[in-house]
Structures are given as structure tokens and as C-alpha cells.
């Protein structure tokens, strides 16, 4: 075939493994949430596969040749698909048999304290909550039916253990959802590192070798963490090297999240592949032959897995790194998608429950994006970026940037399933940070390995790794602070599909423009040799490219610019009371519209993203008074998101079941917020003049509340001419006391107690005489809030119910007698 005959088409067989892998992923995701379906999948796949085999043996030899060729192809694909489903179905059935152990199920149902034998399968981690930090770790426990994956929760942070550590634990079991990676959660009451003789090891745990490797790796991680603590600006180095983010300050963590850089401190396949690629390059320069180089890459991968930990995320990263290396970062097109298909199948057979994990989907998407997009992006960058003295930019400079761009484009739609909005600064931040991250990872790993044998050299390496770490930290700080750093985009499947359509139209237009895809009735443009003249586009190609470009740009502009403008115009500017939609929690805004800068926020909910979106939508920049009605997480969980813009706070008094050390008090003190404990009889005002006035109706100062709900601060707030009664999470007993107190409970708006719980006294609704009742509850929550009896009581009292679970955020505006309600969505 001559130069003009070179077809720009995909190599044959690309989908032979990748297609069945996608099918297996979809089937596994459906099967793990429906216990008992694995056996039927295996049975159906076996029967279908046998039928295909018989059809292949007895196919009609007299058919026309093209038909026979199509038939053989379908038989091949069908046989591979059936084999995949047979293996996955059998694996799911075997795993479910262990997860449904009768002894563990009975212990979880009866909520009894049980003694268990466990082996950690990952490094312990810490979760920050409004009540402090809690340690947790993934483990396997021994059961009669085999090893069962569990999630261990500890009251304090645990750092000294590693994978393979054997524990004897005592605690309560809680059955988790069938689709959860762990079958049970264990609230650990007591534990011992050296189990009693009767506490053995789960089958297949690896015994002493696994424990010794985990202990050694944990010691290496601890040495690296200690060394990084002594070097200014090295907080990110343990994250670069082994995914340990325990030293990262909360502020920097939020900045990296806002700028889409958190993957740099997680274990990612792209970073590992760059490290392995650098190792292969060094080995080749030292004279290693082609046969030795794969062994070197495999050794680097294996050592990384041992040091970082053998949990699911690390296994995914290692396998995807192998795929990227085998495919030459997408340059070897014939093996790119097949190798990704094999990797997916290996991971799914090892643990079918990964099919539902966001990390698995992001790993597959990022790897696919790298394989399919990096070669073209890299070629374009090497032509565009100018380096003095060189005809083209070196690949070592452009490859990390190309990987960052491709991964961002591929993962964008999936990230919308996890959080709303597009990080507009994300691609810029990743492009700026991409060249630094591999150096931070490689030098950090080198320093960690040197520390036990040559401490000074190891500390010097950690100091050197702090230079790219500071660069990444500065990039996160600058890009997170840029105006319009996050653009409006709907979350959930609708937003993901919309962004996928936008990106798909742009990529399709590029493929048509470059001749990679031919229009109907045309042929793909042949690849051009460097010395050949470029072939111009036809009129049909130019029209198709223009149409696709306009469609992509139209979707993007409509969603990011037009939709927020319409939303802002539709939001009432003269609001007095707002119930923010923060899920299953409370967050209310109150103000006098004539003094819009004096805003009171009552509770924060438990979702910083939702709370921030509500504050932005209603134009709240600062909070004159924050009221935390009580310490439950669904009322204070997002405190860290607003603490820096709060001037003063009113909090609930302590109660009989709580301790003296309160996390909310510590957080407010850390933010230098003036704090007062609220009890009945207190009052105050904001904004001067008419402004915003408030008084506390409960709890009484001479009574110690029995629990956190009983300690709830009940407020009557005057916002201009409008009055609101806020009942927090009080119950029937507290309502009876309020009714007997003789206090003025009249209001134009009443915040229904406890998300619409049944524990209410309906007489308090009649006493308020309110026109509107605000119910803050999460959509499809598991508590049955609001209760039908409460809705009936509201209707009987002539109070219109406004529910955040149906209406989204709701606002009350206007003057008494002419109040109007606004809702973010139709209920």
C-alpha cells in the first residue's frame, strides 16, 4: 500500500477485550447490589456460551462469505463475553457466601459486642468530623464461611499499623449496604495488637510475611512523615510519595480540592507510570537491554505496592500504570484498549465490588483518556511550545502536561456525580503542577528509601522534594483564589451527560477536522507524511466541524453563563428568611432586607458544598451572628466552611450526655469567633434600628437538658416587620414546656422542629399562627421526614408547608399580609 493508501483507522481487535470488560463492569455493578444474582449470571453465561460453541461447530458452511465472516466475529465476541460473565458470576457468588455469614449477621442484628480476629488490608486513616478526628481502617475478619471485608472505626487516630497487622478486636457490628466494599462496619471498643491464642488469622491472609512487609512499610512511611515535618513546605511530600496526606493542613487541602489537584497526593496510575518510565529510561542509559527493562518496571511497581499499601486504590493505580506503560502512553494503539480491558477484568475478578466504587470508574476513565487523547495532545503541545535551541519541545516536558489535560477531560463528567460545578481553574492548575508532581513523587520515594540507611541523604532528598511540593501548594493557593474558579454546572447524571455531550461534540469536531473520522459516504483522510502537502477540507467537512463546534460552545455557554444569570435574576433580592437545601440538616438565613449586610445563620447543615452554594446564591458574604442550636452533626457539620466569615456565635448549653470538651467550641475558638452560650431570656439585635432582633425562648438556664435535642436553642427572630419562630430539634416535651411558659410564640414563619419528625405537639403550630412552615429535610431520607401526621397538622392549622426535600432552597420575602414564597424548584 502506498503512502496515499494509508488508512487512518483503528487497529483490528481493539474492542475484542475492552467491550466484554465494559459488559462485565456493568453486570457486576448490577449484581453486587442484588444478592443471589451471581449464580444466575454464571449459569446463564455458561448455558449461552455452550450454545454459541455448538453454533460454531455446526454453522452453515454454505453461507455467503461476508455473512460467514460476520457470524464468526459475533461468535468470538459472544464467547469472550460469556466467559467473562461466567467467571464474574462465580466470583460474586463465592464472595457473597462469605459476606452473608450467619454468625456475623446474627451479631449485627442483635447489636451484641463480639470478639473478632482481623487482619488489616490497608493503612489506617483519619476522618475529620465536627467532633474531632476518628481513625478507621479496612480489614478482613475470620468467619466460618471465609474472610469477610469490614471497616473498623476507632475513637482515636491510629497511625502505627500497616497492612498485615493482626488484631484482636471487640465491638459492635453494623450490616452495610450490599453494594458497599465492606460487608460490615465495626465500632471498635477494645483491641489488641497481639491477638489471644484463640484469635487466628483469616484464611489466605499471608501470615507473618505479609505482616512483616506491612510493618516495614509502615516504618518507612513514619520516617518519611517525621522527616517532612521538619522541613518547611514539605507537607505534600508524603502525599506525593505514598499517598499519606496526614500532614496537609485543612486550608491547603481545601485549596487543592477547589483546584482539582487532590489526585496528586493520592496514588494514581499516571504518576506511577511516569515514575516507572523514568526508571526504565535510567536503566536504558545504564545499558540495560530490552529484556531487562520490563523486569525493572515490574520491580518498581511491586515495590511501590508494598510500600504504599495493597488496598484497592493502590492495586488500581498499579494495574493502570502497567497498562499505560505497555501501551507507550497511548502510542501503541494496537494494545491500548485491549490492555485496559484486561486490567479491568483482573481488578473486577479480584474484587467485583469495585464496580460500584467511584475510584474504579475514575481510574478507568483517566486511563482511557490518556490512551486515546495523550498522543494527539502531546504532538500538538510539542509543536506549540517553543524551547530555545530545540526544533520541538522535549517530550519529558510536554508528556506530564498532556496526561493532566487528558485525565481532566476524561474524568470531568464522572466528577459531576460527586460534586457540583466545573473547576474552571482545574486544567490550568494541573498544567502548571504537572511538571512538578513526578519529580516530587520520585525524589520523595528516593528519600523514604534512603532514610533508614543514610538519614542525612534521605533528609536532603526530602528537602529537595519540598521544592516541587511548594510549587504545587502555591499553584493550588493561587488558582483556588482566582475569580470564577468554579463555574456553574448541574450535578448528578443530568450534568454528567450534558458535559459528556459537550466534550463529545468538541472531540468529534476535532476528529472530523483532522480526518480521523469520515463523514457518511466519505473515506478517512490518509495520514500525511511530513514531506507531503496538507490536504484541504471539503465543504461538507467544514460545515460539519462548524456545526459541532457551535453545538459544543452553545451547550457550554448556556450552562455556565446563561443558566446562572437566569437563576440569579429569579432569586428574590428582598428575602427575609431562607431555608437552605443542605440535605438532611438545618441551615437558615435571616436578615432585614433594608440592612442586607447584617445576616444571621442558624445552623450549618453537614454539607459544605451545599451550604456554600446557598450562601453564594443569596449573596451572603459575611455572617454577623451564627447560631448553632445544638451539637448534632446535621446542624454543625459544615461549620469549618463558614467559621472564617463569622463575627460572633451563639451556641447551645452542654447537656447531660455530653462531655466538657466540645468540638464546636474548639473550632470557633480556633477561628477567633466570639462565642456565647444561649439560654432562655437572652436577646440581642443586628444592624441597628429596626434591623434584626432575636430572643432565646429555650432552654432554661436553671435546667440541665437531658440530651442534645433537648438542649436545642429555640429562637424568636424579628427580621424587619417579619417574625420567625425557630424550633430547632426540640420534641413534644420541650413544646409542652414552651406552651406552658406563657411566652409569645406568634410568628409569620415557623421552622418545623426536627425536620418534621413525629415527636411534635401540634398545639405549638396553632400557637404560632404562622402563614408558612419551613421543613428542612433530605430528599428520600431514611427517617421518614417529614412525617405525614406533621403535614396533616400543618394543613389543619392553615400553615403552608415549604419543604427543602421537594422545593430545594426556599425563601420568604415581602411584608406581613403580603408575604410571598419562592422555591428553587417546583415541588
From TrEMBL:
Q: Which SUPFAM superfamilies match?
A: Metallo-hydrolase/oxidoreductase (SSF56281)
Q: Which Pfam families match?
A: Competence (PF03772), Lactamase_B (PF00753)
Give membrane topology per the record: Multi-pass membrane protein
Domain Metallo-beta-lactamase: from-to ranges: 584-769
Gene Ontology cellular-component annotations: plasma membrane
**Location (main, coarse):** membrane
Keywords in UniProt for this one? Cell membrane, Membrane, Transmembrane, Transmembrane helix
Q: Which domain of life is it from?
A: Bacteria
Which positions, given as ranges, span the membrane?
A: 15-34, 40-58, 74-92, 290-308, 359-377, 397-416, 436-457, 469-489, 495-519, 543-566
Does the record's keyword annotation contain Membrane?
yes
Q: Give yes or no: UniProt keyword Cell membrane.
A: yes
What does the UniProt entry say about where the protein is found?
Answer: Cell membrane
Name assigned to this protein: ComEC/Rec2 family competence protein
Q: Give the organism's phylogenetic lineage.
A: Bacteria, Bacillati, Actinomycetota, Actinomycetes, Micrococcales
Amino acid at each position: 500500500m502506498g503512502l496515499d493508501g494509508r488508512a487512518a483507522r483503528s487497529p483490528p481487535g481493539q474492542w475484542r477485550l475492552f467491550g466484554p470488560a465494559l459488559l462485565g463492569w456493568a453486570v457486576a455493578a448490577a449484581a453486587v447490589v442484588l444478592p443471589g444474582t451471581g449464580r444466575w449470571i454464571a449459569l446463564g453465561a455458561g448455558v449461552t456460551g455452550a450454545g454459541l460453541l455448538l453454533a460454531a461447530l455446526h454453522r452453515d458452511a454454505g453461507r455467503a462469505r461476508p455473512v460467514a465472516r460476520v457470524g464468526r466475529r459475533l461468535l468470538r465476541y459472544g464467547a469472550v463475553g460469556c466467559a467473562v460473565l461466567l467467571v464474574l458470576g462465580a466470583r460474586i457468588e463465592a464472595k457473597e457466601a462469605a459476606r452473608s455469614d450467619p454468625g456475623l449477621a446474627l451479631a449485627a442484628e442483635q447489636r451484641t459486642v463480639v470478639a473478632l480476629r482481623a487482619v488489616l488490608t490497608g493503612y489506617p486513616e483519619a476522618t475529620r468530623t465536627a467532633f474531632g478526628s476518628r481513625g478507621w481502617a479496612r480489614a478482613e475478619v475470620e468467619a466460618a464461611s471465609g474472610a469477610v471485608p469490614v471497616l473498623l472505626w476507632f475513637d482515636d487516630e491510629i497511625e502505627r499499623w500497616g497492612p498485615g497487622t493482626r488484631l484482636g478486636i471487640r465491638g459492635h457490628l453494623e450490616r452495610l449496604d450490599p453494594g458497599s466494599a465492606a460487608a460490615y462496619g465495626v465500632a471498635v471498643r477494645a483491641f489488641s495488637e497481639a491477638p489471644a491464642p484463640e484469635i487466628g488469622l483469616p484464611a489466605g491472609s499471608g501470615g507473618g510475611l505479609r505482616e512483616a512487609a506491612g510493618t516495614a512499610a509502615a516504618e518507612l512511611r513514619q520516617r518519611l512523615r517525621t522527616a517532612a515535618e521538619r522541613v518547611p513546605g514539605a507537607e505534600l511530600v508524603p502525599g506525593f510519595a505514598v499517598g499519606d496526606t496526614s500532614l496537609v493542613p485543612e486550608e491547603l487541602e481545601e485549596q487543592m480540592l477547589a483546584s482539582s489537584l487532590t489526585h496528586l497526593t493520592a496514588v494514581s496510575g499516571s504518576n506511577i507510570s511516569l515514575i516507572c518510565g523514568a526508571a526504565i529510561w535510567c536503566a536504558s542509559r545504564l545499558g540495560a537491554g530490552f529484556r531487562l527493562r520490563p523486569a525493572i518496571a515490574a520491580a518498581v511497581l511491586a515495590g511501590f505496592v508494598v510500600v504504599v499499601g495493597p488496598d484497592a486504590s493502590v492495586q488500581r493505580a498499579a494495574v493502570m500504570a502497567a497498562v499505560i506503560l505497555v501501551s507507550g502512553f497511548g502510542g501503541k494503539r494496537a494494545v491500548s484498549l485491549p490492555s485496559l480491558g484486561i486490567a479491568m477484568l483482573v481488578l473486577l475478578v479480584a474484587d467485583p465490588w469495585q464496580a460500584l466504587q467511584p475510584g474504579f470508574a475514575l481510574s478507568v476513565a483517566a486511563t482511557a483518556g490518556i490512551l486515546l487523547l495523550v498522543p494527539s495532545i502531546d504532538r500538538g503541545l510539542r509543536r506549540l511550545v517553543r524551547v530555545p535551541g530545540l526544533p520541538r519541545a522535549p517530550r519529558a516536558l510536554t508528556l506530564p502536561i498532556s496526561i493532566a489535560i487528558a485525565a481532566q477531560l476524561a474524568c470531568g463528567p464522572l466528577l459531576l456525580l460527586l460534586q457540583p460545578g466545573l473547576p474552571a481553574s482545574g486544567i490550568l492548575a494541573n498544567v502548571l503542577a504537572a511538571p512538578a508532581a513526578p519529580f516530587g513523587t520520585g525524589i520523595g520515594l528516593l528519600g523514604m528509601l534512603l532514610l533508614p540507611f543514610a538519614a542525612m541523604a534521605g533528609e536532603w532528598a526530602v528537602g529537595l522534594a519540598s521544592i516541587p511540593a511548594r510549587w504545587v501548594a502555591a499553584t493550588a493557593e493561587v488558582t483556588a483564589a482566582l475569580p470564577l474558579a468554579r463555574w456553574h454546572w448541574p450535578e448528578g447524571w443530568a450534568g454528567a451527560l450534558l458535559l459528556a455531550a459537550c466534550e463529545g461534540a468538541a472531540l468529534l469536531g476535532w476528529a472530523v477536522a483532522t480526518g480521523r473520522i469520515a463523514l457518511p459516504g466519505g473515506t478517512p483522510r490518509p495520514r500525511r507524511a511530513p514531506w507531503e502537502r496538507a490536504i484541504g477540507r471539503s465543504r461538507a467537512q467544514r460545515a460539519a466541524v462548524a456545526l459541532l463546534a457551535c453545538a459544543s460552545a452553545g451547550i457550554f455557554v448556556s450552562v455556565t453563563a446563561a443558566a446562572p444569570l437566569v437563576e440569579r435574576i429569579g432569586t428574590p433580592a428582598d428575602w427575609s428568611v431562607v431555608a437552605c437545601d443542605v440535605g438532611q440538616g438545618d441551615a437558615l438565613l435571616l436578615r432585614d432586607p433594608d440592612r442586607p449586610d447584617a445576616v444571621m445563620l442558624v445552623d450549618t447543615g453537614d454539607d459544605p458544598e451545599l451550604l456554600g452554594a446557598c450562601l453564594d446564591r443569596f449573596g451572603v458574604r459575611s455572617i454577623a451572628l451564627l447560631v448553632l442550636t445544638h451539637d448534632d452533626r446535621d446542624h454543625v457539620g459544615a461549620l469549618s466552611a463558614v467559621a472564617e466569615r463569622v463575627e460572633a456565635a451563639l451556641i447551645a448549653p452542654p447537656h447531660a450526655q455530653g462531655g466538657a470538651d466540645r468540638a464546636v467550641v474548639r473550632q470557633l475558638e480556633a477561628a477567633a469567633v466570639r462565642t456565647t452560650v444561649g439560654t432562655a431570656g437572652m436577646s440581642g439585635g443586628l444592624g441597628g434600628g429596626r434591623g434584626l432582633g432575636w430572643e432565646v425562648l429555650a432552654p432554661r438556664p436553671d435546667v440541665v437538658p437531658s440530651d442534645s435535642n433537648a438542649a436545642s436553642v429555640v429562637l424568636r427572630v424579628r427580621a424587619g416587620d417579619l417574625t420567625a419562630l425557630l424550633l430547632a430539634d426540640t420534641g413534644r416535651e420541650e413544646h409542652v414546656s414552651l406552651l406552658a411558659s406563657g411566652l409569645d410564640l406568634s410568628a409569620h414563619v415557623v421552622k418545623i422542629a426536627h425536620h418534621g419528625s413525629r415527636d411534635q405537639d401540634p398545639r405549638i403550630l396553632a400557637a404560632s399562627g404562622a402563614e408558612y412552615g419551613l421543613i428542612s429535610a433530605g430528599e428520600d431520607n431514611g427517617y421518614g421526614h417529614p412525617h405525614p401526621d406533621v403535614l396533616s397538622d400543618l394543613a389543619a392549622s392553615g400553615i403552608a408547608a415549604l419543604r427543602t426535600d421537594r422545593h430545594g432552597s426556599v425563601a420568604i420575602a415581602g411584608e406581613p399580609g403580603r408575604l410571598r414564597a419562592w422555591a428553587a424548584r417546583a415541588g
